[in-house]
Amino acid sequence: MNFTEKLKKEWLGNVRGDVLAGIVVALALIPEAIAFSIIAGVDPMVGLYASFCIAIVIAFVGGRPGMISAATGAMALLMINLVADHGLEYLLAATILTGVLQVLFGVFKLASFMKFVPRSVMIGFVNALAILIFTAQLQHFVNETWVMYALVALTLLIIYGLPKITKAVPSTLVAIVVVTAIAITMNFGVRTVGDMGALPATLPLFALPNIPLTFETLMIIFPYSLALAIVGLLESLLTASIVDDMTDTDSDKNKESRGQGIANMVTGCFGGMAGCAMIGQSVINVKSGGRGRLSCLVAGVFLIVLILLLGNVVVQIPMAALAGVMIMVSIGTFDWNSLINIHKIPRTDAIVMVVTVGTVVYTHDLAKGVFAGVILSAIFFAWKISRVKVETMLSEDKVEKTYFVNGQLFFASVTDFVAQINYNDTVDKVIIDVTQAHLWDDSAVGAIDKIEYKYEQKGVEVEIRGLNKESSQLMEKIGGLSKASGH
Amino acid sequence: MMFKNILLAADGSPHSFRAAEKAIGLGKLTDGAVIEILYVLDGSKSKSDVLKYGDSDTASLKRKEMLSRYENLISESGLSCKTTILHGTPAETIIKHANQGKYDCLVIGSRGRSTVQTMILGSVSHKVMKHVKSPVVMVK
Fold first, then answer.
1. Is the pLDDT of residue A170 over 60?
2. How far is A306 from A318, CA to CA, in rounded Å?
């Protein structure tokens, strides 16, 4: 397939499905973009501009057709402190820098390094994200009357109940329309989107962030940008894999990293907050028939058209309806299978998952949780692999003793290994059988030498049996030296 | 009634393995019977599988491994089989596929989902029983 054919297929291969799915996605994106803005502490317009810009740019430069990218909860949660301490302009600058970092990740093909993030950490990441989105809604319930609770309950009832009757219209949209209509006609006086910030019906304008271009500024935004870049790519590449799986097609992960970067750079210049791919929306898109690049473009364009036309209605959406939608989003994000099967998976994996979730919930920082999870996994791995099993067998005439060594011999495991050798054996010959073992480094060779040396001092003959090829090469290379010096 | 073309809905659950045994029992009654194993992959399953196995390639490998257990069961009994993997919502996709092909019967396990999931999402097998035109064997 040549370039133009590929382009044609990715854009026009599925026009009807892509346009319809794009519209469905746009309708679902609006409440989420507003809610994520509120989580980040910025005006609803910042999230809407972000969703508009990212969706349109990624449609052209992304590596995974059919995937939806926009303002997301994971990214919004990382911005809270930056916005609270330094304001919107710094967030926009951080967004541009996030894009630059992500483009670099893509150019240097760092996407493959994502394999160093273990699956239990990814599951912890997703679950922690769900918990944070949920807890971020709790502030909307503070000092509220029963009306608020009733409206949230009604929203959830419609969201989960309506699909049982019809799937023709997205149930979240119906829930928001119904709850908004009730709140307006009954004049409840509950808090609305308009109370949370301005929503001018204008298109985003190009403007570089108004910040001092100093080293100090860089030092403020860099840690946030790095965390945003990593978390954004993690979620984007995870989503890309899920879309790969749902559609039975492959995608270019490095191109996707670059694309996410370009999208964030553009977004920052147009007054939007950093975003990434969205698992939930991408699943909705594919389920609604979206496969090509067109669906993400339609989603972005339709979203901004709706906001420009219906901005004065959107500000009247009660916060209760948004909180309901966000509770649904958090329930959908959580990987419930991981909770149901937690007793079935290896205990260390379960601990890594719980520690990742715990760290995120405690620090409110997804990047720190991922970091803690990766470190803990590495420690568990070293601990697991450093366990060496030694079994012994005494010959019938009791003059020969064989140690069967099973495991990986390296710096972390030699102490454990040597401790299992008993030098007080009253035998004439000792055989160390390493058929089931592998010698990895200088420490391993040193340990074997030490055992030989100690036995020989006691006048016991030692035979090393079953060295595999690499291990014996290693022994020859360094073993000879240390043994010669030992004698 | 001859059961020559048998469609077996498989999801890896114990119920569906019992369904496979019943399908084999039915197939043995007719010479040259063929069992088609149908596996339907939906969005939420894709999500949890990718989270569980790391990437799409590993997830589809694990799925093939799971399906090969059905294939082995069927070929060991001397019947021929083929495997179809489709994407979509389980109930709707099974119904569509079953009604499009010429199957003498559909065999399905009574329950793959947990009680809670069934309460929220409804039972796949119930919907299938209602809308599939060929005879349906639901195995408990």
1. yes
2. 18
- The answer to whether A56 touches A5, Cβ cutoff 8 Å, is no
Whether chain B has a CB inside 8 Å of the CB on A246: the answer is yes
pLDDT tens, A449-487? 888 888 888 888 888 888 888 888 887 777 655 444 443
- Contact between B60 and B67 under an 8 Å Cβ cutoff? The reply is no
Q: Are A163 and A171 in contact (CB under 8 A)?
A: yes
- Residues A247 and A267 sit within 8 Å (Cβ to Cβ): no
**Quick one: CATH architecture of B5-139?**
3-Layer(aba) Sandwich (3.40)
**B53 and A241: CB-CB below 8 Å?**
no
A122, A126, A242 ranked by CB distance to B46: nearest:
A242
pLDDT at residue B82, rounded to an integer:
92
Q: Where are the alpha helices (DSSP H) in A248-318?
A: 253-269, 279-287, 293-314
Site of tokens 């948004």: A322
Q: Are B12 and A83 in contact (CB under 8 A)?
A: no
Residues contacting residue A280 through CB under 8 Å, at least 6 positions apart: A329, A332, A333
Contacts of B48 in chain A (CB under 8 A): 335, 337
Spell A93-127 as b/e; 16+ CB within 10 A means b.
bbbbbbbbbbbebbeeebbeebeebbbbbbbbbbb
What ranges do the domains of chain B cover?
5-139
Complex ipTM = 0.80
Give the domains, in start order, of chain A with CATH numbers. Answer: 9-335 (no CATH), 389-486 (3.30.750.24)
Q: What does the pLDDT read at residue B58?
A: 86
3 state SS of B80: strand
Convert the pLDDT of each residue in B79-99 to its tens digit.
999 999 998 888 889 999 999
